[in-house]
Amino acid sequence: MLSTFYSQNAKFFLAVDCIIFGFQRGNLKLLLQQRHFEPFKGEWSLMGGFVQENESLDDAAKRVLYDLTGLSEVYMEQVGAFGAVDRDPGARVVSVAYYALLDIDKCNHELKHQYNAHWESIDNLPNLFFDHSEMVEKARALLKKKISREPIGFNLLPSLFTLSQLQSLYEAILGEAIDKRNFRKRVNEMSFIEKTDQIDKLGSKRGAYLYKFNKTRGRQTPCLTAGRDKP
Amino acid sequence: MLSTFYSQNAKFFLAVDCIIFGFQRGNLKLLLQQRHFEPFKGEWSLMGGFVQENESLDDAAKRVLYDLTGLSEVYMEQVGAFGAVDRDPGARVVSVAYYALLDIDKCNHELKHQYNAHWESIDNLPNLFFDHSEMVEKARALLKKKISREPIGFNLLPSLFTLSQLQSLYEAILGEAIDKRNFRKRVNEMSFIEKTDQIDKLGSKRGAYLYKFNKTRGRQTPCLTAGRDKP
DNA sequence: TCAAAAGTGTTAAGTTTACACCCATGA
DNA sequence: TCATGGGTGTAAACTTAACACTTTTGA
């Protein structure tokens, strides 16, 4: 009786796909692979994989990310489930998309090479197969909303960063210029951003103070953008 | 070769679960069923069902909603995929949750009875089985955010409504009191809310003007709440 | 010496909040 | 006649947006 309740129903392949965000020289980037194996050889896609029997969706996403980057403990959020009947022409596969925020320089370049993966600037993406472009758009919209409300941008930066880097990160994600003085004023009010006494000499001749993120500090509104969300 | 690519992977039961919101006498409510059949007879749960072979996730959610309410063309949003390995103790089932906003009075009461379903005030819910309470919480949080940004509240009201009804709906969803004059000031600025010349005499002795929602009007920021999102 | 990025405050405009009374009606 | 919900405007507090110049230093 119980077993019939389940077993009369269809079963499905389940995949996870990862929208992997990174930030480099003022550009928001995605880690994409150009598949050098069948099926769909030559096509650009997100990094994905099938969910295994004894694995949660979240764990599957972590595994896929780990396989490509060598990183664990990465900030990830679910984007949603994509379940159009014909989204994958090869078979009925339902996919759950996740986005990840990480520091490009921490990635394992060996693995990246193995998978034929490349960091592509988000404003200059190739066409992606299946519904992967739709996943990217949705992830990008979620990230944009979330970064205005929660201090998650730090995941894309090294542990020490200058305020110019932080600002250009926000500008890249929000897609608009931010006033430098207003931005710094807000940073000063956020207790979870701490000035260190170290100075970065790479980004400018004069040098700029390095800041760090302090998770434990402050449970206030961790908001580095002004005003209501833009439409 | 192609077939092996897929077929070496595990397959899963896929379900959809619906968080069905309604609004009645100042209370935000959920349509829940107390299962009068096995498995899990007697337990309270969301209305759910298995995804079928030739059905998208969205269509499955619509079908499940239609079966219980007799309504189609209902406003629905995906909440997310829930995929903990042991979330369903009977079998490995991954579920995709959707929330729906509808007018309680439009529901088919016959069907509701058949399924042993009941409208329960959201602040007074029974324990729900599996991870359904988690789904409800997530849906509620999404709704709260979304209603502050987009004009979706109308889906919970009859096509003609008073401003007091609209305000109490917002208060129920946001969980806080709103100043009457400030609320009405904002309504006046929203071109998609139209005053009609009809008057409701049921809610008060004096009578109150009925308003209607005009989808086509206005592409401005359709925001009926002030300020940034609360933390 | 100059190009390039770092750093720094003030004011005006706009938005949000707080607040109290009269009106119309049916019971 | 009174209890109930409907309807209305203004001023203070706060938040955001706009804006320009000086500093440091390596090339």
Quick summary:
Chain A is of the alpha+beta class and 231 residues long.
How would you portray this structure in words?
Two copies of one chain form a homodimer. Chain A is an alpha+beta fold and 231 residues long. The first copy, chain A, has two domains: 2-139, Nucleoside Triphosphate Pyrophosphohydrolase (Alpha-Beta Complex), CATH 3.90.79.10; 152-220, Arc Repressor Mutant, subunit A. In chain A, 27% of the residues lie in helices and 29% in strands. Chain A contains six helices and ten strands. The first copy, chain A, has helices at residues 2-7, 57-69, 109-114, 132-147, 163-174, 180-189, and strands spanning 11-24, 27-34, 44-45, 47-50, 75-82, 93-101, 117-121, 160-161, 193-200, 208-213. In chain A, strands 1, 2, 3, 4, 5, 6 and 7 form a seven-stranded mixed sheet that branches. Chain A has a three-stranded antiparallel sheet with strand order 8-10-9. In chain A, strand 9 and strand 10 form a beta hairpin. Chain A starts with a helix and ends in an 18-residue tail after the last strand. The interface between A and B is large, with 43 and 43 residues. Chain B binds a DNA duplex (27 and 27 nucleotides) through helix 6.
